[in-house]
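Example S7 (structure tokens).
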């Protein structure tokens, strides 16, 4: 059987499938996806912010990540906690810690 000879009612491998819906003039909308970590997405409880990573704490305080790890080892930095094997901080804890530093000086 040649490439263009099909049995009745069966499309060939190279044939375009029949459209299931008639084409319309309006363009199709594309779905957009946002990152799970996005701070702009609406939340059910606005007072709950996402947890910070060591990169976030480092950026906020303007110090290297190694400094954050050193403070944690010495028990001096903002109090963080583990989520599984990952270190996390509540933003409020880091803010309050930095304000206490300012008050102590």
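Recovered sequence:
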């Amino acid at each position: 059987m040649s490439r263009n000879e099909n049995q009745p009612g069966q499309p060939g491998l190279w044939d375009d499938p029949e459209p299931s819906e008639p084409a319309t003039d309006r363009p199709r909308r594309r779905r957009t996806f946002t990152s799970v970590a996005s701070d702009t997405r609406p939340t059910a409880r606005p007072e709950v912010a996402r947890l910070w990573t060591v990169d976030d704490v480092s950026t906020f305080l303007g110090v290297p990540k190694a400094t954050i790890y050193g403070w944690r080892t010495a028990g001096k930095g903002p109090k963080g906690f583990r989520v599984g094997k990952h270190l996390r901080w509540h933003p409020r804890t880091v803010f309050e810690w930095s304000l206490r530093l300012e008050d102590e000086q």
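Notes on this example. The chain has a mean pLDDT of 77.
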